[in-house]
Design brief:
Structural class: alpha/beta
Oligomer: single chain
Radius of gyration: 28 Å
Strand content: 5-15%
Number of domains: 1
Shape: globular
CATH architecture: 3-Layer(aba) Sandwich
Number of helices: 6
Helix content: 40-55%
Length: 212
Amino acid sequence: MPNRSYRTPRTTRHRSLPRRDPHPLLTAGGILAAAFLLLIVWIRWQGRQEKLVPVDAIVVLGAAQWNGRPSPVLQARLDRAIALYQEGLAPRLVLTGGSAPADAPSEAAVGRDYALAQGIPPEAILVEDQSHTTVENLRGTRELLAALPAPTILLVSDPFHMARARRIAGDLGLTAYPAPAYTSPISERPLEEAWYVAREALALSLYWATGR
């Protein structure tokens, strides 16, 4: 029989490609995105916190007024603050918010008229009507309460606003307890509320970076 030679089959060698580490910018972007999402979750959680205790003042953060009347958002905040005052949780209301150049009355002045119409005595109302930002709202509040060495306040605003407002209040030496206005119309519109929460995350990041 003829000899048959068998060749050993060749094994194919696969070259492994060098491993490429992620670009530093992509890594940093992922970390920032994750941190931003965590901040959003924290802001939403803060908006669900409520601690109603006796304090020195109930502070209403400003919102828009419409031709001398509270906007629905401002009215929700005022109604919450008035109810807390009537429960005896504080001897005074602090109403904050200035006016835009085209507006005659300030947000605080409109709030004062509304509170008076609801039976709040004028001597129980303090007005801060020069501010246009949350930081200014609370700086003005601190000045109004300057006679108190360590003021305590119930902070009334929309739920999405509570995290940043409480942080600013604490930095100004105010002990702030949350009293969100859950009846605000923004809270009834999930998509709009989500937009406000994302905007608050940006605003809080800016505050941490600049103090404004």
